[in-house]
TrEMBL record:
Protein name from the UniProt record: Gfo/Idh/MocA family oxidoreductase
Organism whose genome encodes this protein: Poritiphilus flavus
Residues annotated as transmembrane: none
Domain Gfo/Idh/MocA-like oxidoreductase N-terminal: 2-118
Domain GFO/IDH/MocA-like oxidoreductase residue range list: 156-216
GO molecular function: nucleotide binding
InterPro entries tied to this protein: Gfo/Idh/MocA-like_OxRdtase_N, Gfo/Idh/MocA_Oxidoreductases, GFO_IDH_MocA-like_dom, NAD(P)-bd_dom_sf
Superkingdom of source: Bacteria
A Pfam family per the record: GFO_IDH_MocA_C3
Length: 319
């Protein structure tokens, strides 16, 4: 088992603490929180060991799980890497692109592994269709959330949209060519609603919308590709896969057949991939442990996190 320590005991930090404590792949040594009053309260309520010195905790573990505010991600990860510790970082990877690139250098220098918490990669609905998404040419995403003061210290792009940015970058086999975007601040000092259009060099276009002042929650993505339409509902854990194939000469009575202006006939059929429900946060943490144990590349590498941040910051600069 890998000895692990958590930095940050806020809302998400407490979730990580509980899951790591239950995991068979980790031994939870304890946690550090800059707020000593909160740290003591969490320790008293849940029984986790509270360290009042960050360096003492880092020295005692193999892996550091950083669940602090984004502004402190770089400093926390740097301290851990310089002591030869593997690092799991919540998204976004860092506050600036320069910090992310510095972590990439530190990772190579100290020979440690890092993973970024883009948890939607482990969403059971996305996992169910991931292999079916092949060279999509148009993507549409909507990530809407009811207002919550937590997270409004950063633009909605870094708070919500970055989930979809990472998922899109993971399935589009091309570099970004052009980005255009607009954002509006309604209640926060930073944009609460944003729309972005990402054009890729291979011709794929992705249209992303994110809002944190919606009247309802929604996390849906639609992928359009040659002879297929794939819809993923990240919130409800549902998928819809509609495909087309050459129509038979003598279709059945209930076969759905379309014919275009050139006379090409296609048959529409539906697939129902099996969705294996999971705890996505636990899965991302445990696959990181497996990458460390087997010396393989983490499923969401620091490079992936850096690329997502780069696109997110370019979107913000387009406002």
């Amino acid at each position: 088992m890998l000895k692990v320590g958590v930095l940050g005991a806020g809302h998400l930090g407490k979730i990580h603490l509980r899951l790591l404590n239950e995991s068979a792949k980790y031994e939870l040594i304890g946690f550090y929180d800059a707020d000593a009053i909160n740290g003591s309260a969490v320790s008293k309520e849940f029984g986790y060991t509270y360290f009042d010195n960050i360096n003492t905790l880092i020295d005692a573990v193999d892996v550091i799980d950083v669940v602090t505010p984004t502004l402190s991600h770089f400093d926390c990860a740097k301290r851990a890497m310089e002591k030869g510790k593997h690092v799991f970082l919540e998204k976004p990877i860092t506050n600036t692109l320069e910090e992310a690139e510095a972590l990439l250098s530190l990772q190579k220098k100290y020979g440690v592994k890092g993973q970024v918490g883009h948890v939607e990669r482990f969403n059971p609905a996305f996992l169910a269709v991931r292999e079916a998404i092949e060279n999509p040419m148009f993507i549409e995403t909507h990530r809407l959330a009811e207002f919550n003061p937590r997270g409004t210290d950063v633009p909605v792009v870094l708070d919500l949209m970055i989930h979809d940015i990472d998922a899109i970058l993971s399935v589009v086999p091309s570099e970004v060519k052009q980005i255009s975007a607009s954002g509006v601040s309604v209640i926060s000092n930073s944009p609460d609603i944003a729309n972005a259009r990402i054009a890729f060099e291979n011709g794929c276009v992705a249209n992303l919308t994110a809002s944190r002042i919606s009247l309802k929650n929604m996390r849906k993505s639609r992928f359009f590709q040659r002879d297929a339409y794939i819809s993923v509902d990240f919130l409800e854990k549902k998928v819809e896969v509609v495909k087309m194939k050459d129509a038979p000469e003598n279709p059945g009575e209930f076969d759905m057949v379309l014919q275009n202006a050139e006379g090409v006939r296609k048959q529409i059929y539906f697939e129902n991939p099996e969705i294996n429900l999971n705890n996505a946060i636990l899965d991302e943490l445990e696959t990181f442990a497996e990458a460390i144990e087997k010396d393989t590349e983490p499923l969401v590498s620091l490079e992936d996190g850096t690329r997502a941040l780069r696109v997110a910051l370019e979107i913000i600069s387009s406002f």
